[in-house]
Specification:
mainly alpha; three-stranded parallel β-sheet; about 55% helix; binds tryptophanyl-5'AMP
């Protein structure tokens, strides 16, 4: 059976890009793959976090994943720091990665530029991400387009390690959605929607009031023309709306364009589709939020299931590297 692994950082409210680029596919993958999903709290530490907030956000993110449809009976759902194997394999992969290849990571360049404190962890982050993936003998990693380069690195590290030390890791590949791999900011459609607080009007949060969601979509930036056409280069705003609508309904964005003659109708249809996707998630989240102990129990069981897979894979790596076994 295909093994699927993916993760999400507890660094801020979940936005529509996370949902359409990744989370909805995690749910779908449960039908035909062995699925493992992780709240990657160690990844959040690359920038300073408020401890109380990090704790709350980690639990709330797990509750949101359950609300979106992750089923703990069919998937392994856990918190990264509960499975210590991630940190150990991360070190091993830091020693497998080249300095130059980490320096080429575009996310590192973007996030470090202009920052007054750049942690060493921000630089080695992709090695930890590779560890997350390789620990589970992962075949496929469902992610949004912004993670393409990181998954590619995980692949390269697996191949390099196997070449040096013998067959150890399964070589993973990233998978992307047909529509929604790169959801753009509604106000600045040439940059990706992100959970940062930079553009509140351009970002749709999964848990924000639905009337506000509809308003933001209706006020989305388009262009001075009137033709509805899918052309991300020339018409980024309109194309973004078509992609969002297509991701919600399962239709092809270019084909959807032919159904609309006015921007207003496209916006109204997109707003309705997004609201219908978010409504049941918000309802389930409200129920789950009332039972934090229930979610904590799910995560404890998930960590046990995860360790049962990660432990033997790490042992394989240790043995092949020549680390002296504990007797
Ligand atoms: P993170 O937490 O930033 O985002 C989680 C997922 O959401 C996707 N995503 C988007 N997709 C489409 N359009 C957008 N605007 C958009 N914004 C975010 C991301 O591509 C991602 O799939 N490094 C990862 C977390 C991670 C991970 C892993 C992922 C750690 N270890 C192992 C996969 C496997 C990250 O920061 O994602």
């Amino acid at each position: 059976m295909t093994r699927v692994f993916s993760g999400i950082k507890p660094t801020g409210p979940v936005q529509l890009g996370n949902l359409l680029g990744a989370l909805r596919r995690w749910v779908a993958d449960q039908d035909d793959a062995d699925t493992v999903f992780c709240v990657v709290d160690l990844h959040a530490l690359t920038v300073p976090q408020d401890p109380a907030e990090l704790r709350t956000r980690t639990l709330e993110l797990a509750q949101l994943l359950l609300a979106v449809g992750i089923d703990p009976d069919r998937s392994t759902l856990f918190v990264q720091s509960h499975v210590v194997e991630h940190s150990e394999l991360s070190w091993i992969l830091e020693c497998t990665a080249a300095f130059g290849e980490l320096r080429r990571m575009t996310q590192f360049k973007d996030k470090s530029e202009g920052a007054d404190f750049v942690s060493a962890g921000l630089f080695t982050y992709p090695a930890l991400m590779a560890a997350d993936i390789l620990l589970y003998d992962t075949d496929e990693v469902p992610v949004g387009d912004d993670q393409r380069q990181h998954v590619e690195l995980a692949r390269d590290l697996a191949i390099r390690f196997n070449h040096r030390y013998g067959d150890t890791f399964v070589v993973p590949k990233a998978t992307f959605p047909a529509a929604g791999a790169r959801v753009m900011d509604l106000q600045h459609p040439t940059r990706k929607m992100s959970k940062s607080e930079e553009s509140p009007q351009g970002t749709i949060l999964v848990l924000e009031p639905l009337d506000q969601v509809a308003k933001k979509i209706k006020r989305a930036v388009t262009d001075a023309e009137t033709e509805v056409r899918y052309d991300p280069e020339a018409k980024p705003g309109v194309s973004n709306l078509l992609s969002i609508l297509g991701a919600c309904t399962g239709d092809d964005p270019a084909e959807l364009a032919g159904r609309f003659t006015r921007y207003g109708d496209l916006k109204a249809a997109t707003a309705d589709a997004v609201v219908e996707v978010l409504r049941p998630i918000q309802q389930r989240y409200a129920e789950l939020a009332a039972d934090p102990a229930g979610t904590a129990a799910v995560l404890a069981k998930g960590a046990d299931k995860a360790r049962a897979v990660a432990g033997p894979v790490l042992e394989r790596a240790r043995a092949n590297l020549g680390l002296l076994p504990r007797t």
